[in-house]
Amino acid sequence: xxxxxxxxxxxxxxxxxxxxxxxxxxxxxxxxxxxxxxxxxxxxxxxxxxxxxxxxxxxxxxxxxxxxxxxxxxxxxxxxxxxxxxxxxxxxxxxxxxxxxxxxxxxxxxxxxxxxxxxxxxxxxxxxxxxxxx
Length: 134
Prior knowledge:
This protein has 134 residues and is an alpha+beta fold. It has helices at residues 20-23, 37-47, 67-74, 85-88, 102-112; strands at 25-26, 30-32, 51-55, 61-66, 116-120, 126-131.
């Protein structure tokens, strides 16, 4: 006869809620908003990334730009080599907190049709990026 040892299990287990902090990627390249589009595209190519976090002179994240957005600006008829990133961030992307639940962040990204969402601290400094996986 073999003895079986029984362990009690809690009857009301609480599900663990994942937050953005659990799923975000490192911030990656951060560039100043006075950088030109051409230089930003070069930085993006060198870093082999599809997006750049744009910050102001104080290091506060002001938005996120994708390669597609930068290429569209560069290919437009009004483009000059003096166009700076701050000139094209007229509608900054929304940001999220690392404490936001994944369900809330996913819903926000789906609603706004975003591929990536900057994650910032309470002072606006970039902590990372929540990106859709393909």
